[in-house]
Design goal:
This protein is of the alpha+beta class and 125 residues long. It is built from 4 helices and 3 strands. Strand 1 and strand 2 (44-54) form a beta hairpin.
Length: 125
Amino acid sequence: MGVKRAAQRKVDHELGIKSEQFPLDNIHFITRIKYFAAYDNTWGEREIDHILVFRGDVNVVANPEEVAEVRYVTKEDVRELLQHSSDTLTPWFKRITESGLLFQLWDDDQVGSAAQHNLDNIIEL
C-alpha cells in the first residue's frame, strides 16, 4: 500500500492528477525491476523500481518544474520515440520497452488481476 500512496503523491506533484481521479484501489502493482544505467565514468543510477499500472480518465495539469511535455501515445509512437529520440527517454523506460514488458502490459486486459501481483519477483533489466 505504501508504494501506491507514493505513486499517488508523485502523480499529483508531477502531473497534477488528484487522488480522487487516481484512487488507490485502481492502482495495480505488477512487479519490480532492477537496473543499472551509466551516464558517464562517474555517474549512473542503480535502482529497484516498482511497476504499477493504472487505467482511467484523468485531468493532467503538468508541473512545469517536473515535466517538460505530456502527450498520449500509441505503441507505434513509442517505437518511433525509441528509434529517433531515445536520448530523451529515461533509462528505466527504455529498458522496460526494449525488454517487451511495456507492450506486454499494454496488451494485457487482465492487468490488475491477482495473478499479476508478484511481490517476491524482481526482474533484472
